[in-house]
Amino acid sequence: MTPRLTSDFWVRAYLRRLQLVDIPAFITEKGDATAGAVIVKLNTLDGNAKAFHRSYDLDGNRVWAVLAEGAERDVDASLTKQRSFDPDIWVIEVESRDGRHLLDEDGLSG
Predict the structure, then answer these.
(1) Which CATH number is 49's domain given?
(2) Model confidence over 57-66: pLDDT tens digits?
(3) What is the pTM of this model?
(4) Based on the structure, what is the number of domains in the chain?
C-alpha cells in the first residue's frame, strides 16, 4: 500500500512548485489538514476560470478532472456549493494568463 500524503503537506509542496516557476497561487479555503480534498481553481485573469479536483479514470488511475469551468463567478458559485457539501475541502487559486497549473507534471498528476 502506498502511503498517502496529508492534504496540508501536498498543498504546501504544490504552492512551492508553483512559486519556483513564478506562478502566483493562494489558499482561499483551508480544509482538513490530514484528509481534506483539494480543489485547484485556475484563474486565467480574463473573467474565466476552471476548477480541478482529483478523480479516477476508467483504469482506476488518479487524475485531475475538471469540476467546473466558465465565467469566474460561475466557477466560484460551484466551489461555494462544493464547500456546503464538504467543509473540509481546500481551495487553491492559481493565477495564470496562459493556463499553467502544473497539475499534469510528475508528482502532481495523480
Answers:
(1) 3.40.1530.20
(2) 888 888 899 9
(3) 0.91
(4) 1
